[in-house]
Design goal:
It is a single chain. By secondary structure, the chain is an alpha+beta fold. It has a single domain (3-88), classed as Alpha-Beta Plaits (2-Layer Sandwich), CATH 3.30.70.100. The protein is 28% helix and 27% strand. The protein has helices at 14-24, 56-73; strands at 3-9, 34-41, 47-53, 80-85. A hairpin with a 5-residue loop joins strand 2 and strand 3 (47-53). The longest helix is centred in the middle third of the chain and has 18 residues, at 56-73. The chain starts with a strand and ends in a 19-residue tail after the last strand.
């Protein structure tokens, strides 16, 4: 079952997030089962991420084998996470402006 994961990274700065991107390399080598990823920062500078995954199992595999080891290596604090079963997902044509890999 697909899941929505909301990560809240108190103390995770934009600089830390930018260091994680090439370390984990999720953009050039997307994790199996990842559907959607969006990151933002609040007015305090803390990270907020919204992900959709094909299942909690594939998300946990990525988090445990790729993300957390990279966070530990870079001294990035672990975020809190809330995971919910997906009820509905809509993707609108504007998504094409944000795609890493264009559909063929």
């Amino acid at each position: 079952m697909a899941v929505l994961a909301i990560f809240t990274g108190k103390g995770i700065t934009k600089k830390m997030y930018e260091a994680l991107r090439p370390e984990v390399n999720w953009e050039q080598n997307p994790p199996q089962g990842a559907v959607f990823h969006a990151a933002s920062f609040d007015d305090k500078g803390d990270l907020h991420v919204c992900d959709v995954w094909e299942s909690a199992d594939v998300m946990n595999q990525f988090v445990n084998t790729k993300l957390l080891p990279a966070m530990k290596k870079l001294n990035v604090p672990a975020p809190s996470v809330n995971v919910y079963p997906v009820h509905n997902v809509n993707v609108y044509p504007a998504i094409d402006r944000f795609r890493l890999v264009k559909s063929k």
